[in-house]
Amino acid sequence: MTVLAESPARSGPDGAPGGGRRLVDLLLRARELSIFGALVVLVVATTIANPRFLSEQGVKDIFLNASILVLLAVGQTIVVVTRNIDLSVGSVVGLVAFLVGSFVSGTETNLLVAVVLGVGIGLACGLVNGLLVSFCRVPALVVTLGTLYVIQGLQYRIAQGEQISASEVPDGILSLGTGGVLGVPYLPIITVVVMLLVGYYLRSYSSGREFYAIGSSPEAARLAGIPIRRRVLTAYLVSGALAGLAGVLWLARFGTVVADAANGWELTVVSAVVVGGVAITGGVGTVYGAALGALLLTTIGSVLVVLKVNSFWQQAITGVLLLLAISVDRLLELRVARALKSRTRHSADAPGAPGAAKAGAGTVTKGKDS
After folding, report:
1. Where are the alpha helices (DSSP H) in 50-170?
2. Considering the entire predicted model, what is its pTM?
3. What are 89-117's pLDDT values in tens digits?
4. Is residue 83 domain-resident?
5. Residue 182 Ramachandran class (φ > 0 left, ψ -120 to 50 alpha, else beta)
6. Where does the sequence pass through the membrane (predicted)?
């Protein structure tokens, strides 16, 4: 008897069956909505306690402060979904801000030149990280922690205790951090455009979905013919380039740059990404969720300042949110695994399924032999 097997279910970007992909998307959407809800509750409660919190300048400050963090979170998301991490982004921001500031100091350098220089430095740092992780196969944690300290040492050596003051930076660059369009500052506009472009690429292009496939199952991705090394290298290049752009925006935003600019931001960026629903184990998450996580952490910092609470609590709250996010990721992972297992079992037991047909054929054969 001939048995016709059913075609396999369509796979999602992480290699899960179509039903599993839909379940993951549903859970991610619920996660992002919960972050947005928490953000709304936080803002409303703070506004009740201090009505000046939602003043026009207060809202602008929140979005300006969040812009650079969101930009770094977008780049970090691409790296984390491939089961890697980039701890050097904060150091890259500081290095780029100081080098570009030194380059344009006392000149009338064009803004485009400053942006190209900053992105180029970030790309160089990302290239070193990407080559060591993807082609030399050194663990990402070790590589990026090492480059973090190397870049910091290089930055202190170049600075030699000096600083870049806002009076030395050309007005064309400073206007990027202070100006805007129709009352909306340039920095949030740039960040939103980058976020939408990266999010659309990851969602709509097969090469973008391959990043998720690598994070979901590197072995399956390799068997499927996905160029894992090139994709991981690309992830670090994008992260480095966005960190370089963030360094230029840092210079435009603050004007004054010291040797330890953005020091410690790497952990804040990772926290924002994980809180935003990007699984630290890879394969799951969106840049939109990471952006919401960054906005939530920035808002918490602003709320504590408005309520005159010790800044220590910001770090404590960030740590608690990070632990909660990792715990939720683990619970969601187990839930998805159980759901997929249940779907597979029900499909195998259903009438007409390949397993059921084979079992029926075996029973008929046994009857003839007896």
Report:
1. 56-80, 89-104, 111-130, 140-159
2. 0.82
3. 999 999 999 999 999 987 887 889 999 99
4. yes
5. left
6. 33-50, 62-81, 87-104, 111-135, 184-202, 232-252, 264-280, 287-306, 312-332
